[in-house]
């Protein structure tokens, strides 16, 4: 269990998380309007964000979650609560919208990362933070192609290793990234666990109050509020977006 070493809230983290949540809502709204209701400009916007902004936004969100492990009273409870939300969401989708089924999305991934960290924190925190940061960041880069379902690890143009087809075709390995991914939202542990661990290394300095002083100032209360309630926005935004779009296209447009 990570103990809170500094009571001052890092408001910039909440604000950044809130900005990322708003970006996610826009991204998914474009998908709904474009691919579900057939609007060409929304399809173009969704595809552009998916290619250029989504990976960066997702990496920042996972990184923030890793940092927060050193600011949480109980990572075990935090991870279990997030896992319960993830399972409940998947059950609802399985019966209500099987075409949009999420087998191992960002909530599942973050829950697994938090629980794995809770189990290993005592040993991991004995390793210097800088070592954890450098090694985790390097491994995240090497395994990064897996998040795009490319089926290899390494760096294009320098060195790559293909994942054997027998592993790629093993469906239950999809949560690791070694098996081919499927589902509406897929965040495999490889590379995202290493992105998360990079965040936990930064979180040690955060817990000691060593982040720049400007990050502790509350500048945008609205964004901070959204960031503090990110899970609820994630769970609720898609049904609301679909309902609003359905009403608009059926009764107005």
Describe the model.
It contains 10 helices and 2 strands. It has 253 residues and is mainly alpha-helical. A two-stranded antiparallel ribbon has the order 1-2. α1 runs antiparallel to α3 (54-68) and α1 packs across α9. The chain is globular, with a radius of gyration of 19 Å. The model is unreliable at 1-7 (pLDDT under 50).
Task: Sum this structure up briefly.
With 253 residues, this protein is mainly alpha-helical. The chain has helices at 11-36, 40-52, 54-68, 75-96, 106-124, 129-143, 165-168, 189-207, 221-228, 230-252; strands spanning 152-155, 159-162.
> How many domains would you count in the coordinates?
1
Helix proportion of residues, in percent?
55-70%
How would you classify the helix and strand content by structural class? mainly alpha
N-to-C SSE string, H for helix and E for strand: HHHHHHEEHHHH
- Oligomeric state as shown: single chain
What structural keywords apply?
253 residues, mainly alpha, disordered N terminus
Helix-strand layout with pairing:
Blueprint: H1 11-36, H2 40-52, H3 54-68, H4 75-96, H5 106-124, H6 129-143, E1 152-155, E2 159-162, H7 165-168, H8 189-207, H9 221-228, H10 230-252
Antiparallel strand pairs: 1-2
Helix pairs in contact: 1-2, 1-3, 1-9, 1-10, 3-8, 4-5, 5-8, 6-8
């Amino acid at each position: 269990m990570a103990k809170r070493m500094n009571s001052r809230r890092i408001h910039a983290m909440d604000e950044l998380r809130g900005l990322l949540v708003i970006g996610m809502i826009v991204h998914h709204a474009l998908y709904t309007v474009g691919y579900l209701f057939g609007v060409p400009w929304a399809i173009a916007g969704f595809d552009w964000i998916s290619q250029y902004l989504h990976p960066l936004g997702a990496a920042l969100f996972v990184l923030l979650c890793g940092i927060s492990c050193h600011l949480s009273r109980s990572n075990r409870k935090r991870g279990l609560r997030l896992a319960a939300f993830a399972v409940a969401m998947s059950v609802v989708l399985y019966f209500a919208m099987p075409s949009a089924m999420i087998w191992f999305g960002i909530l599942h991934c973050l829950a697994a990362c938090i629980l794995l960290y809770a189990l290993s924190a005592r040993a991991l925190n004995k390793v210097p933070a800088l070592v954890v940061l450098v090694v985790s960041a390097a491994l995240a880069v090497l395994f990064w192609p897996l998040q795009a379902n490319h089926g290899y690890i390494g760096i294009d143009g320098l060195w790559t290793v293909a994942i054997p087809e027998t592993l790629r075709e093993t469906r239950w390995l999809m949560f690791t990234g070694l098996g081919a991914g499927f589902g509406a939202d897929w965040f495999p542990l490889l590379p995202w666990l290493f992105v998360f661990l990079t965040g936990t290394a930064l979180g040690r300095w955060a817990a000691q109050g060593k982040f720049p002083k400007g990050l502790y100032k509350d500048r945008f209360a609205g964004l901070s509020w959204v960031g503090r309630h990110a899970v609820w926005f994630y769970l609720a935004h898609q049904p609301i977006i679909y309902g609003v779009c359905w009403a608009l296209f059926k009764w107005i447009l």
